[in-house]
Amino acid sequence: MQPDTRFHEERWLRVVAITAGSRTPGARFRVGQLRGRLRECGIDLLWKPAIVPKHPPQCKWARPLWLPAAVASRVPAVISSWAADVTLLLREMVSTLITLEPLTKPPRVLDVDDAIWLHRGGAFAKYLARHVHMVIAGNSYLADWFGRWNPNTVVLPTAVDTDRYRPSLRVEPGETSAVIGWSGTSGNFRYLYMVEPAIAEVLQARPTVRFRVVADRPPRFTAIPEDRLEFIRWTPENEVSSIQEMDIGIMPLEDSEWAKGKCSYKMLLYMACGLPVIVSPVGMNAEILAEDSVGLAANTLSEWVDAMEYLLDYPAKRRDFGNRGRKLVCARYSTAVIAPQLALYLRSVAR
Q: What domains lie within the chain, and their CATH numbers?
């Protein structure tokens, strides 16, 4: 199902979006950043991010206090939904549980960007899918699963603000003094550790190449020397420049159900900044690679080494991949393209 994205005059539609915290990637990029573009489409979106984290604290003694606080903190958002035309739920309100979702005002739309059904047997995910008017999935793998429980399921990728994420004007480095980089949350370090031996091998062979990690905390590498690692602590202020200053962006993944549910967002951010990418051809990563020549696929450690060395040796190929990637993101994944599609999906359930 693909919406007609031609703009036409309709009444203003008021939508309340209930999401995780305002700094969580899904909430920021699938809801928060689209508000301005949605307003251009006649959608007044009231964003209600969580104040209390939706995931339980690591300290077990705090969990009995956390759960009632997390649920209670969502009550104002639930009340706000009754003044709206549509309620947009970004996943479940409290991790793996059904809490106040049934009390929100219908029609409801569920937005999912992860394989959440893999937790606790998936009963909560099935319940949500069955009790909303539409499911918006971040990729086709997610849509296939949710489509079993709700036939009104559509695919809408996570949008990239291509006005912010754009190529820098810096001078391109020489063939060897380049920066290979990875950006993400520490919760995904396990994927990075999978290819650490390959990165270490490339760094050892090329003394002037550096490896950059942009995350909420430093990784704990065992094979990559500290003096070859650039760690940049993520902030909203440096999230763009820290990618723009890279020369190659990498996105390793394991071949698992959870990884197939990933929406390839770091890959899209690299591409928006004009970087060539090296990625594990898993799930949506493989689909994007098939759309155009934007980078290289790597499965084994030797393939990761070969891919990094190839792009280091051929700057012209880096530029070609980067230019193609930028054009692809602008054409298919930008906020200017995705927001009107989301607006029409929201209008379709309000009728």
A: 13-159+334-350 (3.40.50.2000), 179-332 (3.40.50.2000)
